[in-house]
Amino acid sequence: MKDMINIVELVIFDMDGTIFDTEKLGIQKWMQAFKELGISVPEQALYEKIGLNSKDSKQFLKERCGVDFDYDAVKNIKKRLTKKHISEEGTPVKNGFNELIVFLKNKNIKTALATSRSRENTLFYLQHAGKYFDKYFDFIVTGDMVEKGKPNPDIFLFATSQLNISVKNSLIIEDSLNGIKAAIAAHIRVVMIPDLVLPDDEIIKSVFKVSRNLHEVIDLVTQLNNRDK
To answer: Which sequence spans correspond to the domains of the chain?
Structure first.
């Protein structure tokens, strides 16, 4: 993947942990929900499920917590706690996103949001991130719009097909291991910006680049699109 030199015509963003600083919040609210119901959970499992859609998260946690685990009860409490926090505090936006999205728009590079969250939850997060935030993207694909969620490639391939952009001319920005696996399976260049999960040597070798923040993506896209000039 690192030898690809195609220009970037589409940038696909993951949401939680990539453009929104919500992964820590999510883990915190999951832990509160488990505590309210008096259920113990291996905290590491909450990190490992990052990037999964609701259906796959349910299956994953049932495997970790046992078949009698009441996922829906815990999820409903977690959802209530999270919505209350976001409604009161707003959705925290990652440093560099506003500058990056303006840069991409000025360069006529298309943008998409590809998140494992449901459409309802995605729009809630976007609407609480700031005025017109949901209008920043040329296309939004959510976890309930595809048959198979991350780490399957469906969500990213759906975005490229809807915007009629080749995978060779696309770039994905991700923070989760499941999202990175999905990008690799889609044969799309992926930039990892670590959030809660740090990359190991295998991930570093498999991604196009590891960046520290969204600001660095501006320089990367500039370099790729000017390489043949």
So the answer is: 10-21+92-226, 23-89
The pLDDT of residue 228: 57
Give the integer Cα–Cα distance in Å for 179 and 189. Answer: 12
Amino acid (one-letter) located at 31: M
- Annotate 51-66 with three-state secondary structure: CCCHHHHHHHHHHHHC
State how far the alpha carbon of 16 is from the alpha carbons of 65, 113, 153, 194, in Å. Answer: 24, 11, 18, 12
**Confidence tier at 57 by pLDDT (50, 70, 90):** confident
pTM, to two decimals: 0.89
94-150 pLDDT, tens digit per residue, is 999 999 999 999 999 999 999 999 999 999 999 999 877 878 999 999 999 999 999
Q: Is the pLDDT of residue 4 over 60?
A: no
Dump the DSSP string for 107-139: TT-EEEEE-SS-HHHHHHHHHTTSTTGGGS-SE
Rounded Cα distance between 65 and 128, Å, is: 33
Residues 6+ away with beta carbon under 8 Å from 34: 40, 41, 74
CA distances to 8, 103, 174 from 108, rounded to whole Å, are: 10, 9, 21
Number of Cβ atoms within 10 Å of the Cβ of 57: 21
CATH of domain 10-21+92-226: 3.40.50.1000
